[in-house]
Design a protein that fits this description.
The protein is built from 17 helices and 2 strands. With 395 residues, the protein is mostly helical.
């Protein structure tokens, strides 16, 4: 298992595993909590769109901090900042100033965290084992997701939102601890020539993925919660079952990608996700079908994520500036997500059935397929030019 020899990527995956406890727990209940408090679906979708819009506006700030402190230190700071949104969320009971405050804090934390996380993961990973690194990460996250939703649902019901989301925030902050033993990665003060051009393929892939996620994840979360009678424990159980269904798929497909089967893996992953999106739209009125569609979605996600993110991480690793590449890519994701959420919110407000918003995922997936397929045609064994030397600060 040569892909486990990279100590730094193992620590980064350990960080992600702790972070996944929160992502599969309290973070997965954000929309459900807002709906439970009487906020209507178009406004919930609108709130997520506002977070993405604020992220897009704030994103350039991350570059200055990365230049000054390095990517690892920024990732640690992003983990702590991301934790702050959850205590604020617990105080949201209606549309108003507190809800906007939550959106602002969430946007700031996510802006710092995700740009630095993706840049760091790409910088310290190995091209020859990229798919297995991602597959391992996703499989571990899926295993953790079996328990985390049950715990979060139980805490929300029994202990209340302040305790439940407080615990979520603490876990997110604690996820920074493994990063204390990893090297720092420096970012050049001036963007190297060709930085913007090199970032465009990643930004376009991310734009399509963000548009697809608006329907596949955000709209579907509301549809599922509604189909389950707005029951938090039932919602947690559905998420746990989904994690169980998807736990074993990541490493297998990751190995296939690293063996030169990227296009095949992409067809399987995108095709599976498209079929599940259609099934989710059809199952909106039936709780049993909705739970089944949700479980199949986790399996499809474990097939989809390694095939797409292998391309994105490899492109970013060989960009003139890896960090700026992911700032641009995350900006593309924000734009795609805003467009999808805006369309879904507008359609719902005008009286369209909410399940129709799930189908917005299909054009986004088609766009992702076209862009990532181009990468695998050019790199059939995921072997771009020889790795560039990393500017790693051992302190």
């Amino acid at each position: 298992m040569a892909f486990l020899a990279n100590r730094t990527i193992n620590l980064v995956n350990f960080h992600y595993a702790i972070h996944a406890v929160a992502m599969g727990g309290g973070a997965a209940f954000v929309s459900a909590f807002l709906l439970k408090n009487g906020i209507q679906p178009p406004l919930v979708l609108g709130a997520v769109a506002i977070i993405l819009a604020l992220r897009f506006i704030l994103r350039p700030i991350a570059i200055g901090f990365a230049v000054r402190y390095g990517v690892r230190r920024l990732l640690i700071a992003g983990s702590i900042l991301s934790a702050l949104q959850y205590p604020v969320l617990a105080e949201v009971h209606e549309v108003g100033a507190v809800m906007f405050g939550f959106c602002l804090v969430a946007a700031l934390g996510d802006t710092i965290y995700w740009s630095s996380y993706h840049a760091y993961f790409a910088s310290v990973g190995d091209d020859d084992h990229r798919g297995k690194h991602i597959g391992t990460r996703e499989a571990v996250a899926a295993l953790i997701g079996i328990v985390a939703p049950f715990a979060a649902g139980w805490m929300l019901e029994q202990a209340g939102p302040r305790i439940a989301f407080g615990v979520t925030g603490v876990v997110v902050a604690l996820s920074a601890i493994p990063l204390a033993w990893t090297p720092n990665v420096q970012v050049a003060a001036k963007a190297p020539p060709g930085t913007f051009k090199a970032a465009m393929p990643g930004a376009l892939i991310a734009l399509g993925d963000g548009f697809a996620s608006a329907g596949y994840h955000f709209v579907w979360g509301i549809v599922l919660f509604t189909a389950l009678g707005a029951d938090l424990m039932a919602f947690g159980g559905a998420l746990a079952l989904a994690a169980l269904a998807g736990a074993a798929a990541g490493v297998i497909l990751g190995s296939a990608i690293d063996s030169g089967h990227g296009r095949r893996a992409l067809r399987i992953g995108v095709g599976a996700l498209a079929l599940v999106a259609a099934l989710r739209a059809m199952s909106s009125g039936d709780a049993t079908l909705a739970v089944a569609a949700n479980a199949l979605g986790a399996l499809a996600g474990c097939l989809y994520t390694p095939s797409v993110m292998t391309a994105v991480y490899t492109l970013g690793r060989h960009a003139p500036c890896t960090f700026r590449f992911y700032v641009a890519a995350e900006g593309g994701w924000d734009i795609g997500g805003m467009l999808g959420l805006g369309l879904a919110a507008a359609a719902s407000a005008l009286g369209a059935p909410l399940w129709s918003g799930v189908l917005l995922a299909l054009p986004g997936m088609a766009f992702v397929y076209v862009r990532v397929r181009r990468f695998y045609i050019d790199n059939p064994r995921v072997a771009p030019p020889p790795p560039l030397p990393l500017a790693i600060d051992p302190r």
